[in-house]
């Protein structure tokens, strides 16, 4: 008869280093791991916590429990926001649902590969088509990060998803409006707000002109409109929306064409009320309402229908084409680096076009812009030639670097 597997056990605590450190040993089916504590009291508490976890659901190493532990650890270490972590957990629970109540060892490399094959071939309820290559890779990446963490913790010897290879070629970025189409989009949205009071139409223009995410615009409050309508506090620290990343908090300048409409919308309202509230409920506009508003404005402007995130990509492309510094564009979008901006937001070719324009100016090949003479005067001429928005970003960047206001 095969020998029965012994249940997980916790041993210790063991005093080490002359009583300045205490160790407990957790013995599991795949081996053991040690945890260290500064005091005996902490070590005893750690033993109780480990024993309690072993007793949960009759399976100390159930995948669902380890998934919860992994998500909590990510938030505690500041690797992502609680909102993003919650979404990661929901995605993984949906995909790995058949194994959530089973021991983590049950998910073998062969079964992991079968799960991925099922993912890439199963139509979704939303589109009736299998997930896109980008979605498939996103799910696979989430699973690989989870099991790498479990391996480092000693729950597994190796990840079952290590050798699973993604299929398909992901598309980069979203379909974007052309600049003339964007002008018609903005005009149509303003007309819909001015004539019919379409608040969500104005929200779409705010996203386009400021390069904001849909969630950032939807969760703006009246008090976030500051300095007489000249600034907006996006994903501020005291907001109920903390942003997708820690770089999301920023305070972009509001274009003059947008200011009077936002001020009219905020006039006489409670400071903590949602700026773009749905009139019937008084609550933040939903993601679906924002999505429908973008489609509504596109139809009114007679331009191709795009998704909300495409408006953000158009802003990034316009920023790069205007000659704005790459890190300034990334910071305005709330990105940690320009690599993210270039990969997912900027229209293909825009970077090359911007580099070509700068090269032409440097070589004095543009007859409309003669070569600047060296010296102080050339610097003044160069600054005077910059677009207003680019110059404003340079000033803001200088203030951040020096830590002083002019």
If you had to describe this structure to a student in words, what would you say it looks like?
The protein is mainly alpha-helical and 406 residues long. It has 16 helices and five strands. The strands form two sheets. It has a three-stranded antiparallel β-sheet, with helices on one face. A two-stranded antiparallel sheet has the order 4-5. Helix 11 packs antiparallel against helix 12. The radius of gyration is 27 Å and the shape is elongated. The N terminus is likely disordered.
Keywords:
elongated; hpI Integrase, Chain A; mainly alpha; 406 residues; three-stranded antiparallel β-sheet; two-stranded antiparallel sheet; 16 helices; 7% strand; disordered N terminus; single chain
Brief synopsis:
The chain is mainly alpha-helical and 406 residues long. The protein has helices at 40-55, 63-76, 82-95, 109-121, 133-152, 179-196, 199-210, 214-218, 259-266, 287-301, 308-321, 326-333, 338-344, 350-362, 376-385, 388-402; strands spanning 9-16, 21-28, 31-37, 225-226, 231-232.
């Amino acid at each position: 008869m095969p020998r029965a597997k012994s249940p997980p056990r916790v041993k210790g605590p063991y005093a080490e280093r002359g009583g300045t450190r205490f160790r407990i040993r957790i013995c599991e089916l795949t081996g053991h791991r040690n945890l260290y504590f500064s005091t005996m009291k902490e070590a005893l508490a750690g033993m109780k916590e480990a024993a309690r976890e072993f007793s949960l659901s009759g399976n100390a190493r159930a995948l669902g429990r380890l998934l919860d532990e992994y998500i909590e650890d990510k938030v505690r270490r500041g690797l992502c926001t609680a909102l993003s972590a919650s979404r990661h957990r929901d995605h993984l629970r949906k995909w790995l649902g058949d194994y959530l109540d089973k021991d983590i060892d049950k998910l073998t490399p062969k079964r992991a590969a079968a799960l991925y094959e099922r993912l890439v071939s199963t139509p979704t309820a939303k589109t009736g088509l299998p997930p896109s290559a980008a979605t498939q890779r996103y799910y696979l990446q989430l699973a690989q990060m989870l099991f790498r963490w479990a391996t480092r913790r000693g729950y597994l010897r190796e990840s079952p998803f290590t050798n699973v290879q993604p299929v398909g070629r992901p598309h980069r970025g979203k379909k974007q409006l052309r600049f003339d189409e964007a002008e018609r989009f903005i005009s149509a949205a303003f007309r819909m707000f001015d004539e019919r009071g379409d608040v969500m139409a104005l929200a779409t223009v705010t996203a386009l002109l400021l390069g904001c995410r849909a969630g950032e615009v939807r969760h703006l409050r009246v008090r976030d409109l500051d300095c007489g309508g000249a600034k907006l506090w996006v994903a501020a620290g005291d907001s109920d929306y903390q942003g997708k990343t820690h770089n999301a908090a920023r305070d972009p300048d509001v274009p003059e064409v947008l200011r009077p409409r936002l001020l009219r919308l905020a006039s006489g309202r409670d400071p903590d009320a949602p700026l773009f509230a749905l009139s019937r409920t008084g609550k933040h506009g939903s993601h679906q309402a924002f999505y429908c508003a973008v489609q509504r404005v596109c139809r009114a402007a007679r331009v191709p229908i795009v998704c909300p995130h495409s408006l953000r990509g158009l802003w990034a492309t316009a920023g790069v084409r205007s000659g704005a510094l790459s890190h300034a564009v990334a910071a305005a979008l709330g990105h940690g680096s320009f690599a993210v901006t270039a990969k997912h937001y900027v229209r293909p070719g825009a970077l090359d076009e911007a580099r070509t324009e700068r090269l032409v100016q440097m070589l004095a090949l543009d007859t409309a812009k003669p070569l600047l003479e060296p010296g102080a005067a050339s610097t003044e001429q160069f600054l005077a030639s910059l677009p207003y928005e680019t110059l404003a970003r340079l000033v803001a960047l200088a203030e951040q670097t020096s830590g002083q206001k002019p």
